[in-house]
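A protein record pairs a chain with a discrete description of its three-dimensional fold. The following entry can be read in just this way:
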Amino acid sequence: MHDDLATTLDPERAHALDRAHVFHSWSAQAALDPMVITRAEGSRVWDGQGREYLDFSSQLVFTNLGHQHPRVVAAIQEQAARLCTVAPAFANGTRSEAARLVASHTPGDLDHVFFTNGGADANEHAIRMARLHTGRHKVLSTYRSYHGGTHLAVNVTGDPRRWPSDHASAGVVHFFGPFLYRSPFHATTEAEECQRALEHLEQVVAFEGPGTIAAVVLEGIPGTAGVMVPPRDYLAGVREICDRYGIVMIADEVMSGFGRSGRWFGVDHASGGAGVVPDLLTFAKGVNSGYVPLGGVAISDAIFATFAHDRYPGGLTYSGHPLACAAAVATIRTMEDDDVVGRAAALGDDVLGPGLRALAERHPWVGEVRGTGAFWAVELVRDRATKEPLAPAGGSSPEMAAVLGGCKERGLLPFTTDHRIHVVPPLTTTPDEARAGLRILDEALTAAHAAA
């Protein structure tokens, strides 16, 4: 082993150097005691003490093909041996093929791909394109949403992570999306929630001034906000409002895209599976399982035409980086060859959905489970009648800490946000692995509730 790599492998040294030099995101630095991950394979990771965990987080919901997939690793190695990097102005076969493969799965005429380094800058560029295309400035997005950590993307974000950076100067207006469990519209059915949410959006458009609004930005299926699958006709209704007022519809598929929901993209579930075609679609994460940073914007013909003869004022040094694109080519081809999207749908239909609903019946803290494919959320509440969350927005609680600790003690690496456990394993997770993870979650909930 090369000395440069060998020096990084000692877990104690890794932890000590992390605490001395690494500044972590979304964290109070002094309180951190991060787990050291030394290796991973498939749906499993190992910590610095050699303990094994089922990864029910897909890290940050991006290892869609699991860890160390041999086909993707080989593609990165082969690309590195041939061409490690090249400036964006040059064409190269790997980037071109990655763009073709992305376009082959995006809906409608989203056939032009601008590559970015990740999801936040994909959303930044999509909004810039929409503003230039329309000549308008305002952007509408939902309160329960997350669109990235850069300045504009975090202001488009609706959840409390926005607050410290929001000076009401980014041209963003927030509105309520549909969420029947905590309906802001006093709806009692999905159909009512859908209708009232669309009426609300149209009122916001009217009061803000349709001629001032460049784009409506929506996650295909909101992710960290709670995995809230939109009602059947909601996205089609948003599409109709956007068309009527000349507003660009941007679908943020950074988390819900590339098979996570049991379809290639979250918008494919709309209208009973007929799907909806946005004007711009942003992606990252699952496009190459996060093996090398990559994101992008899939662009419609109409918006592409805006920049066909007028220069687009934007770019990135590493746009379409060869190593990242090689990972994307291998990932998408693997997904096609192995029917990974179909496997994710079956995992949700046959294992995760039934298992989580059964778990909800046994645990008084579970207010609701919801999701699709390998994309689920367990909403934890103190009281099912009042729906009081088990932890505050943007915070934690002893009860949530006990659930999280119980999962880790039993060998499960969960993904949590506020008062929710998100069940988001790799799409390649086997049914037996998924059942084992659900058993651990069941045991952790039981123990935490008994100790409360």
